[in-house]
Amino acid sequence: MATKKTTKTETKTAPVAEVKAEPAKKETKPAAKKPAAKKAETKATAKKTTTKKTAAKKPVAKKTTKKAENNLPDIVTLADMLRAKVEKKDASAINEKIAIQIKVYGEYENYMYILVDNGVVTVEPYGYLDNDIHIDMPIEDVISVINDKYDFKAKALSGDFYVLGSLTKLLKVKEALF
């Protein structure tokens, strides 16, 4: 309390209001809607995931329609086509066993083989592990070979024809059958 002097020599005490300092109040902003934002993000993520799953299913359907549109034969039909072509040829000049495995790729990937054994030619729609020659070819190129429209020399020089094995045996088979 403070004392106050007056003109008379008396001292009077006057009550002075004491002010207590209150702690400063923090300004409260409206709470950010973080949980709602997280829910919105979760919903958006769920929608994206659903969209991705749907998008992943669509190309499968497109591949099926592309196969139907291109009319590319399956491996069994392709082997039948090649068998029909080489049956007409005379392979009696080849007096040894030559096995050629062809890896067909493109719309699908599969193997077929040509086996020439003492002039007898066999064509089957599966792999032959004990082969002398391994060839990788797109399905369109195999069809071109069957239709006599494939230029082996030009493809080999351009690097589009991949062969692993005995080139001498390959040339013997090419001369006799193709």
Order of helices and strands: EEHHEEEEHHEH
**Total number of strands:** 7
The portion of residues assigned to helices is 40-55%
Q: Could you list the spans in which at least 5 consecutive residues all have pLDDT below 50?
A: 61-69
Oligomer: single chain
Physical arrangement of strands within the biggest beta sheet: 5-4-3-6-7
Major beta sheet summary:
5 strands, mixed
Report the mean per-residue pLDDT as an integer.
77
Shape descriptor reads globular
DSSP helical segment count = 5
Secondary-structure-based class equals: alpha+beta
**C-alpha Rg, in Å?**
43 Å
Strand content bin: 15-25%
Taking the alpha carbons of the first and last residues, their distance comes to 122 Å
Q: What are its keywords?
A:
about 180 residues; alpha+beta; two-stranded antiparallel sheet; 5 helices; globular
Kindly describe this structure.
The chain is α+β, with helices and mostly antiparallel strands. The chain has helices at residues 34-70, 75-87, 139-146, 152-158, 167-177; strands spanning 2-5, 11-14, 97-105, 110-117, 120-124, 133-138, 162-165.
